[in-house]
Each structure stands twice: as C-alpha cells, then as structure tokens.
Amino acid sequence: MARVVVVIFLAGVVVGVVGTILVPRVAAPYIPAGFRDEATEVDGRVAGKLREAGRLLLTIESDRGSVLATFTERVSEIDLLVATGDEIVISMPEYEPFAINPPIEHVARATGQVPPAGDVNLATPSEPNVPSGSMDSLTFPPPPASPQPPPP
Hints:
about 30% strand; alpha+beta; single chain
C-alpha cells in the first residue's frame, strides 16, 4: 500500500514539473493576449524630463518611436536616478506611446555626461570629508565678501 502512494506521489511530481515546462509553450497560441505574461522592453534615450507635483514625466526616444512615461510612484527616487540623456530600458506589456508607472529595468548614465548642478551626487568622494590629524590643523576658507552698497 505504501509503494502505491509513493508511486502516485512521484508521478504527480513528474507531471507537475513537465507540465510547468511544456504547457506554456503548447498553450501560448490559444491564450488571449491580455492573459499572457509577455513584456516588451523599450530601450531608448531620455530626451526630456519634467517634474510636477506628485508625478514625473520622461520622454524616451527609441528605435520604435517616442514614449511618454508618467511616474506617480517613487517619484523622488526615479527623479534622482534618471537624468536627461541617460539610456533607459523600461518594460511594457506591448509598445504604446503612453505608459503609466512602467517598470524600469536598467538605467545607464550617458558617457561623458556631467550631472546638472541641481542633481545630488550620491557617489562616494575620492577623499574623505574628515581630515586626518588633530583639530588644530583645520583651516577654513575666509567668509564671502559682503556686497558694497551702491553709491548715492
């Protein structure tokens, strides 16, 4: 009796593994497009970036055309991550010109690009901010000169 239970269990495991591998390939043509879990990756360059209250708009130019991606979630993080001119890869169910909160697969800084003055640089500095040695060796720059009043 125990052998029958073990054989049935092992047969179920084999059918489950084989079914997981083969059924998606065989059944894919018969499943409607809305139920398939296929994603299209759009690879392009960020041509424009606009931050508004509660959302971030990115214009991405790819080989297939332009995409306007609107992000309403994690706006500040994406704003810090992506800059104009960067190469970006987003994932969408199918190519369309407007995308809302598409998953970002990859971002690459454009070669030779220096971040704009307003961007935050999160990279580690090459030299530490705290000087080694005693506190007596610290020197501070002179205060900025005060503006002269205009002549009367």
